[in-house]
Amino acid sequence: MNRFSSAVPDNEYLADSNVLFYLSDAVSQLLEHKEEYTHFGVIRYFAEYFSSVKNSNHVLFREYSYIMATPHNRASFIRVFWRCYRQIGKSGELLSMLEYRSLLQLLCPDFPLEPVQNAARIVLMDDAIDYLMSFSDFLFAFQLQFYYKEFLDSVLVIYQDLLAGKSPNTVIVPTSTSIEQLPPVAAEESDREQQQDGVEPSTLAQCVDAFCDRFKHSHPPRSCMKGVLEQTNRISYYSFLMSLAKHEAINQAIGALPNKTEFLIDPEMDQELDKLIAQISVSPGSNSSGSAVGGLKEMLQRKASPRRNIHHRRRIEVESDGSTEETDSSEN
């Protein structure tokens, strides 16, 4: 949305861009750590804060509630996760659900288990979720359910109503209460088999399209969902989600990840890695290959990860007396 367009009311622009949310957060952080920011400079603080929001570097090490607060925050976190752990995809290593959660908690300490479980169910089609997954399969599934969480929770309610035999005219548009009352994740085997049988795609498409008319949050493009549902005679909830996760138009709509042909390519990161390897190879103090690899990993994490949160960076600047030794110790 163009903020300079006279056709866009001010209140509508503020609501859609979440400017007031970010301003409130910036003020809250400033008041909480005002002694540190007074030395740093309030004007420079606000400039740095909104610059980090614009560049999608603002979600690193923030609490889960903050990351989930806006679509921009969610997309930014997805991109941070990709940039930090892209090397896992390049190596072809397979990880478990709990291992992916551990990686997520390095970026967001209070990241819950449920979103990781939901992504695993998409990849594994709701089978046993303790199998290993590739980085690309997990990340595209995670992107879908993480960015469109509220919509997909509601679609699950619609899907379960259709499974129960309700007609499209009697399917109730989900509310937050009905979503909270969903059955436990560990469903009985008979229910699991019933869900795998699926529903009529045209009926599901009709209900989902009607729901989109009333849904106030982000949802996948209707053309994508319609295209997926037109390609099969029966469809289950998780097969529907897996098809959406693989759809390039969904990836483009979210805008956090590159297309799949460039998924493992990040020239800026590769250049930093080459520099770090060169530094280690010529370092006279590196007489152990193990210590060299450990140093490389530590430096790579600092280089690969987007800028740390402003509070952490400002604390380093305020506490440092300008000497290299003290700055280094605060970083480690």
TrEMBL record:
Low complexity composition-biased segments: 283-295
UniProt biased composition (Basic residues): 304-315
Start and end residues of each stretch annotated as Disordered: 283-332
Coiled coil: none
Main location: cytoplasm
CDD domains: DD_C11orf49
GO cellular component labels: centriolar satellite; microtubule
Localization: Cytoplasm, Cytoskeleton, Microtubule organizing center, Centrosome, Centriolar satellite
InterPro entries assigned: CSTPP1 (IPR038968)
Listed Acidic residues bias regions: 319-332
Keywords: Cytoplasm, Cytoskeleton, Microtubule, Phosphoprotein
Role this protein plays: Regulator of the tubulin polyglutamylase complex (TPGC) that controls cytoskeletal organization, nuclear shape, and cilium disassembly by balancing microtubule and actin assembly. Regulates the assembly and stability of the TPGC and thereby modulates polyglutamylation of the microtubule, which antagonizes MAP4 binding.
Similarity annotation: Belongs to the CSTPP1 family.
Protein name in the entry: Centriolar satellite-associated tubulin polyglutamylase complex regulator 1
Originating species: Gymnodraco acuticeps (Antarctic dragonfish)
